[in-house]
Amino acid sequence: MVVLCWNISFLLWISACIVFVAMLLWGFGRKLPVSPLKVLTIGTAAAVVLLHWPAYFTEWKFVVHSGLLTAFHSFRFFSMSFDYDKFVEIAAANFVDSTAYFWVTLYLTVLRIFAPALTITAVLSVFSDLMDKLQFAASGNRTLYIFSELNSNSLALAADIAKKPEKKLIVFSDFSESLKKEKQDLFDRARDLGAICLKQEITQLQIKNKKTTIEFFLVSEAERINLEYAVALTEKHKNSSKLADSQKICIYLYSSSPAAQAIIDSLDKGPYLLNEAYLKTLNSTNIPNLRDKKVRQEMREKIPGNFSIRCVDPIKECVMEILTEDVSTVFSARDKVIRIAVVGYGTFGRQAVKNAVWLYQMQGYRVQLYVFDKDPGLRKRFAQECPELVSRSDIYEPGEAQYSILFSDADCFTSDFDQACQKLPGFQNVQLVFVSLGDDNTNISAALLFRAMFNRLRKEDSATEPKIYAVVRDDQLEQVLHSGKDAQGKNITSDAWLLSPRGVSTHITLIGTHSNQYSYEICEKLKKQEYLGLQIHMGWVKAVSNGLASKADQNKLDKQAENIQKYFKYSYFRDASISRGQQELMLRELKKAMKNLDYDQKITEHMRWNAHMRSMGYRYDPVLNHSAKLHSDLIPWHQLSEEEKTKDDSILLEEDE
After folding, report:
1. Which residues pair with 147 in a beta bridge?
2. How many C-beta atoms surround the C-beta of residue 129 within 10 A?
3. Extended beta strands in 189-322, E state
4. Which residue has the higher pLDDT, 97 or 637?
5. Most buried residue among 81, 181, 343, 647 by CB atoms closer than 10 A?
6. Are 497 and 468 spatial neighbours (Cβ–Cβ below 8 Å)?
7. How far is CA 47 from CA 42, 50, 71, 77, 222, in A?
8. Distance of CA 189 to the CA centre of its chain
9. CA distances, 132 to each of 119, 236, 243, 393 (Å)
10. What string of H, E and C letters represents the secondary structure of 348-364?
11. How open is the CA angle 62-64-69, to the nearest 5 degrees?
């Protein structure tokens, strides 16, 4: 037995070494399914076990005892704590030929030196990977939160999910042994959250429990990979949610690219996008009574459906949070002009302009946007993206969106910047400033310049206005500045503020960190918005149906069903309803603070809709054509037909407590 086991041990170890070298040479620059080191470690461990087995095996009735001794002494072999002389004696007794004895003792000596070099840690890593796999397989009915990779963004999101009290399992996929050294700090923090790391890609994970709720988060740093995963996951899971009590799957693709949303809308999401019970609730011969609390509760519980894929723009959500957090201050201007300065038309600046222009539309008010960017061609590029948003600027026609967008290529780090700003009409009364010029230091420097400039322009006013938001992506920097003390020793904890040289707060809020953009609250808020948006959409379906469908009119019933399903299939219909809901919720809060607020809801809604459509690139044309981004209703309120005017009724219901 000794000769057989030791010969196999030698051949196995040599084979592992050859495969290790081959994988290193061939796999250079390629993504391998398993790391070369893992192959070498497993091969060496098996070779060591085969060396020890004959030494501790006596007879088959003591096989368990022999196995435990073999395992124990095999582990000792990797730490050099083993009886080498005993192995030499066994070799001398079984390999009488001098040549064979020479090669066997040479093999023992090489392995004696080589095995400890791998260390016991390398061996345990194999078992650690096995434990993660077993934990994933035994996840049971726990909610699975699965991430496409481990990075700073996904870890911030996972840390937020870890606070949820439910039974859950957080999984990071596509995590190889080679990445562990590169991302050791992230790996340790993930372990602290109780998360597991699997080497398989997110599309390769097999989830066998058909009653498990699964949420996939595609947050890879490469946009192309996220899109590939989105397509693959949709194809894999689109038909897995057939019944109301079956597996529930939601895929979140994190991207700020308009192309990503277009690709998601184009995917075939299968025939079971909505379960049959939910469709029956929504698509009956009578539109459900949305004022019935039980009906609304059922609608909310099923949002966003058994299978859904959503594109999440973390920057847009961060900007929207800011725009809606203190609207009473924004609408408090005496001349009823809402003024916002956007410094740097990057990703943050773009979202600030395109969302503020429709969110703040209200009868009797006007939105004034000042956009600063050193690019002299910015206005032309913006006009290409949103042609009517530029061409209809400064046209103050009743019942039409009221806004003005002024572009300036003045450099805030030059001496003539103050004078250039003073020439802009009403600039000294700006209420919000977004600064996003580039790196963190540049943004902080520019924000401090703006604070100083506004304090000079508005000496008689409060130095806390306007509110200035500077994009800072360094989490550690934001945390340090977030919890400071001013010159009087007063804690500054409500916002991330910078201090002046005298220790006075500059009231500059830092935004854009991982914790700002990658919070699970965004996903929960999205579900809430979709629920409210669905109520608005159902009112729209009722309006366009021109009377309720009936079983006798199958064509109308089919058309109604098609319009209902469009809400879940296409972002255009969700965005239209959700944006309306966001504004109506904002105005509801505004009414509480401003008791004398008076406006026509229908006209306000049409103003908002016009601005929102133009921010999406739409322009007016008598013939409706969505692929050309042409719409026949982009006209003032009084020019609409009576049928179109009825669609602007207030149909947003009270929120359920």
Report:
1. 172, 217
2. 19
3. 196-197, 213-218, 248-254, 307-312
4. 637
5. 343
6. no
7. 9, 5, 12, 11, 41
8. 19
9. 21, 23, 30, 58
10. HHHHHHHHHHHHCCCCC
11. 95
Q: What is the mean pLDDT of the chain?
A: 82
Cα–Cα distance between 230 and 266 in angstroms, integer? 12
Instruction: Please tell me the distance from the alpha carbon of residue 74 to that of residue 72, in angstroms, as a whole number.
Output: 5
Give whole-number Cα distances, 461 to 391, 435, 458, in Å: 35, 22, 5
Structure tokens at 372: 């600063």
Contact 330, 366 (CB under 8 A): no
Q: Is 135 helix (H, G, I), strand (E, B) or coil?
A: helix
Question: What is the rounded distance in angstroms from the CA atom of residue 147 to the CA atom of residue 253?
Answer: 10
Contact call for residues 40 and 121 (beta carbons, < 8 A) = no
Host H or E run for residue 371: strand 366-372
Long-range contacts of 581-588 (CB under 8 A, 24+ apart): 581/529, 581/532, 581/533, 581/536, 581/652, 582/320, 582/324, 582/359, 582/529, 583/358, 583/359, 583/361, 583/608, 584/650, 584/652, 585/324, 585/532, 585/652, 585/655, 586/324, 586/327, 586/359, 587/362
For residues 577 and 347, give the distance between their C-alpha atoms in angstroms, rounded to a whole number: 24
Residue 143 belongs to what H/E stretch? strand 143-147
Residue 307 and residue 238 in contact, taking contact as beta carbons nearer than 8 Å: yes
For residue 262, count CB atoms less than 10 angstroms from its CB and return exposed for 0-12, middle for 13-18, buried for 19 or more.
exposed
Residue pointed to by tokens 């379960």:
275
For the ranges 49-53, 173-177, 389-393, the maximum mean pLDDT occurs at 389-393
Which has the closest alpha carbon to 56: 48, 47, 68, 39? Answer: 68
Task: For the chain, report the end-to-end CA distance as a whole number of angstroms.
Answer: 75
Give the dihedral sign, CA 236/237/239/245: positive
pLDDT band at 485 (very low <50, low <70, confident <90, very high): very low
Q: What are phi and psi of 323, to 5 degrees?
A: -65, -25
- DSSP symbol at 505: B
Tokens at 336, concatenated: 């009823």
pLDDT, position 481: 62
Candidates 239, 243, 246; CA nearest to 271 is 239
Q: What is the helix (H) or strand (E) element at residue 70, kind and residue range?
A: helix 63-78
In this model, does residue 393 exceed pLDDT 70? Answer: yes
Closest alpha carbon to 405 in 418, 419, 393: 393
CB atoms within 10 A of CB 427: 19
Residue given tokens 């496409």 in the structure block: 148
Give the whole-angstrom CA distance, residue 558 versus residue 285: 11
Q: What is the pLDDT of residues 150-184, one digit of tens each?
A: 999 999 999 999 998 888 999 999 987 667 777 88
565: nearest Cα among 267, 263, 231, 305: 305
Q: Is 460 exposed, middle or buried (0-12, 13-18, 19+ CB in 10 A)?
A: exposed
pLDDT band for position 54 (cuts 50, 70, 90): confident
The pTM of the full predicted model, rounded to 2 decimals, is 0.78
Can you state the percent helix, strand and coil of the chain, rounding each to 5?
Answer: 55, 10, 35
